[in-house]
Amino acid sequence: MRSTHRRTKGLAGIAAVAATSLVLTACGRTDSGAGGEAQSDEVSGGEATGTIEVWAMGTEGEVLQDFSAAFEEANPEATVEVTAVPWESAHDKLAGAIASGETPDVSLIGTTWMGEFAEAGGLMPTPENLVDEADFFPGAWQSTEVGGTSYGVPWYVETRVLYYRSDLAKQAGWDEAPKTWDELKTFAQDMESKAGAEYGLNLQPGQTGSWQTMLPFAWSNGATLTDEAGEEYTIDSPEMAEALDYYTSYFDEGLSPTRLLDPGELESGFAKGDYAAFISGPWHAGLVEDAGVKPDQYEVATIPSPDGEQGSSFVGGGDLAVFNDSDNADSAWKYVQWLSEAETQTAFYEEVGDLPAVQSAWDTGELAEDEQLQVFGTQLETAVSPPAVPTWEQVAGSIDSITEQASKTDLASQEAVAEMQSKAAAIGTGL
């Protein structure tokens, strides 16, 4: 199979995007903070005008200025000014701008920051008729909602799937990927005993970000993190404890290493056959091929679940938001709407490889033709975002720490989950 995330695309197709209609009808808004039923200020019809100041991070920030030329061509009275912001300083820069009232008009916002910045009063609610929620992957849209109100629009997404050495799987007697938890456990055992792998499945044994691998097992088992209103944490449940117990069993049984691997060790070990499988995002296709894995030696598959239905995964990526202090909110929303068009998202994928948040963008071109990419698209249908609450990153840190204890010590899963709940309750949701 082919790699999914090579950033070698050109600007082909941008001209067609410029013709996208930007006419938006009006909608109303009442002033309220996060958790209300407010709508954004009225968005007029017609073309965008004036200067639209935009902050964007990473590769997106590097290419967005040139990419926006198509928008400016369709809106000759508008000028887009993009400032590239390093990811490592982005959170503090955004928080400081909101506190001082010196924000841009639009910014890329990491999905796990939405709750914090919305609750701080920095973000405008999304106009009700700006876009159709149903056009987006459900988990991606969920990342924009704080207390029942959306404060942005999903721009690009990523999710995690199961990577496995298909050639080794055949040696072990597997012609297709495991679909249930029982099958996944047997698969990992067979990859060691029959195909010679040192570890059948590499999972993250705690430390920063391990919740992104552990929680999909919990979500697949029916666990929730908060109540429907997002006001109380609901981590302490039989479903969560059962999922954590299953997750840590891989470390207990020697099927996954209990240490974090060194940089590059997973990719080289996957190429050597030492690590038979792992869970990760679309960027890893290029990394394992660079390490020497041939395209016909590995496959990707959706995450298994207890009952064989498609399991859940973590959905991340970036959202677009307009700030309450914007000097040109009307045109800023039109720019966000343009970036949310399927044609624009397809063109942006062709430029940088970002996976579109709009589902219809996956119906044509390489996204529709590449079997590997389609697995990620399928996984996105059931992927889940963490709750968009202001305190999520604090709670995530405690989940990481307690997951590590459960993975490396004899801490029972029920006790671990109860401790997660206790710490989360003490922190609160912030709503």
TrEMBL record:
Sorted UniProt keywords: Signal, Transport
PROSITE patterns documented for this protein: PROKAR_LIPOPROTEIN
Name of this chain's protein: Sugar ABC transporter substrate-binding protein
Family named by the database record: Belongs to the bacterial solute-binding protein 1 family.
Keyword check for Nucleotide-binding: no
PANTHER family assigned to the protein according to its UniProt record, in alphabetical order: MALTOSE-BINDING PERIPLASMIC PROTEIN, MALTOSE_MALTODEXTRIN-BINDING PERIPLASMIC PROTEIN
UniProt source species: Nocardioides aestuarii
Signal peptide as annotated in the record: 1-26
Pfam families referenced in this protein's UniProt entry, alphabetically: SBP_bac_1
Coiled-coil regions listed in the entry: none
